[in-house]
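Lab notebook, bench 4. The sequencing result for the construct came back, and we need a structural model before the next group meeting so we can plan mutations. Quick request posted to the team channel:

Model the 3D structure of this chain.
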Amino acid sequence: MGTVDYYAALAHRDRTFRGRGLADDPDRTLTFSDGNQTVKLASLGFLHYTVVSLGTPNVTFLVALDTGSDLFWVPCDCISCAPTSSSRYSYNLEFSIYSPNSSSTSSRVSCNNSLCEGKSKCVDSRGCPYNIAYVSADTSSSGFLVKDVMYLTPEDGKHDIVAAQITFGCGQVQTGSFLGAAAPNGLFGLGMEKISVPSVLSAAGLTPNSFSMCFGHDDIGRITFGDKGSPDQDETPFNLRQFHSTYNVTVTGIRVGGSLIDTSFHSIIDSGTSFTYLADPAYTLLSESFQSQVLDTRRPSDERIPFEYCYSMSSNQNTSLIPRLSLTMKGGAAYSVYDPIIVISIQSELLYCLAIVKSRDISIIGQNFMTGNRIVFDREKMVLGWKQSDCYSSEDSSNTLPINPHKNTTAEPPSVPIGPGKYSPEATKETGNRGTQGSVVPLANHSPLSISRLSQAKIFLMLCIFYLAIL
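Done. Here's the predicted structure in token form:
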């Protein structure tokens, strides 16, 4: 992962594109034609990305997956976009730029189209404009809406490539975090509104109105359109609002180790947010309970680190253990959190932090709390479903890339031993935005291996080697 060969295998496949309807099988599931793989890229905002093919001839884009927004947009006929190739990305990536004039299947969305929300500023000769401002300061995307084909493939592998007509944004001007820190090659909105790709696929009769995402402990994941999950998954209902519905759920309690916290709050499920954000009183109650059960020494606050509860690696014990963490959802089901901490290197010292950021108002279950679960966004039943998954089991279908995932078969997460993982430079996202703020240097907690003093030395050596490589 992270090599030129890996991304070449992910993005470039010989395909014969022939559109084919699937109305004869409404339960068919679809995924992207370039492979059902998502990859968490540390240098690009610590978010999960996948490869999407658009237009005729097809052009591929590395887009960030975001359940917290609706519009899918890519850089297009650019006035101000992220560089197409830059050493800042840490990987040897070459990004594409979309142009309606270069695709024989492209057309502009007219002012009277039901998906055009910018009718007041719409001029038919130029098509429907869009302008989306995100919470992060000065982060936005603007341009006009286009319709073109996006290439998908059935999960069963028994049909040809599907050329699905979708509406997306021709992003001519990006600002803020979109200029390099996060989603420089496009943002794939997966929200509930009718312009999102899951809504369009369902409205066209190509898939059921549901999709699933699974983020593995090895930073590789999957996304499947039309997936309604399994009969034995846990579920909780969405809280629907009259205007601009989001994937909002109710948490009715928190379990930290052996302690049960009686609290209730609403939270958005947002794959476009790197870490989890909690508002008080839930944040303080959870953090203080965590603090009371951790044996290692808590470090003083550091303005460079967005997390308040950080601890030095144990020097007197062979391992540092943290208490297990789960959320009780409305309806009574427990949502287990498999990656509640993150390991950070600060001035040759290794720390681990409770990877939750204090929020002033809104609570968000971010990507780090989604790891280890196959999460189903069922928009027909209006429920969130989840089940522990390694993302590679037979029910999730096979992986086509040569990867060796770490498998975790524990039904309930025990007290979590801190284990060595891959180096993951990260810039933490602000509450509810699509961008980033600040920088830390984490080692993600991917494997259930205890970290000994010898392991700590190995990790530090790995960090040194990586620093030398990027210099």
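Residues 329 and 374 are 16 Å apart (CA to CA).
Will bring this to the meeting.
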